[in-house]
Design a protein that fits this description.
The chain is built from 1 helix and 9 strands; from the N terminus they run ββαβββββββ. It is mostly beta strands.
C-alpha cells in the first residue's frame, strides 16, 4: 500500500468527481464524499471497507469492516464508484461489475436481488468511465 495511487470516482450532490490519489488522500476524499469507500489500485485489485449491510463491500458477507478487504472475483479493475448501498467497478475489458443493494434494480443485472459479490451489469461493453 506504500506508493500506490488510486482512481476514485464519486458523486457529490449533482457533481461527478474523479481523483487520482494516495492512500491518505483517498481516505480524506471518501470521508468528505460520504460514499461507500472502494479503491482500484494500480495492481488492479479492488478493496473496500466500512458499512456492509447490503453486501456493498463485495467480499461475500454483510459484516462491517474497519480495514480494507478484497472485493471477491474482481481482477483488472481500472476504476470504482459507489452509491449509498451499492458499488461498481470498471474492468479493463470495458465491462462493468456491480454489487450490494439492488431493491430498485441499480445493479443492472435484471433482478432486484441484493448481491454480496460482483455481478456483471447486462448490456454494457466498451465502457470507458463510470
Amino acid at each position: 500500500m506504500g506508493g500506490e495511487r488510486f482512481d476514485v470516482h464519486y458523486i457529490r450532490g449533482r457533481s461527478r468527481r474523479r481523483r487520482r490519489v494516495s492512500w491518505v488522500a483517498l481516505l480524506a476524499v471518501l470521508a468528505l464524499a460520504g460514499v461507500v469507500p472502494a479503491a482500484a489500485s494500480e495492481s488492479s485489485g479492488v478493496v473496500a471497507w466500512g458499512e456492509n449491510v447490503d453486501g456493498q463491500l463485495g467480499n461475500g458477507t454483510t459484516t462491517t469492516e474497519k480495514e480494507p478487504v478484497a472485493v471477491k472475483v474482481l481482477t483488472e479493475a481500472t476504476a470504482v464508484a459507489g452509491g449509498e448501498s451499492h458499488s461498481l467497478a470498471l474492468l479493463k475489458s470495458g465491462k462493468v461489475m456491480a454489487w450490494g443493494g439492488n431493491a430498485d434494480g441499480q445493479l443492472g443485472n435484471g433482478t432486484t436481488t441484493t448481491e454480496k459479490e460482483p455481478v456483471e451489469v447486462k448490456g454494457l461493453t466498451e465502457v470507458v468511465a463510470i
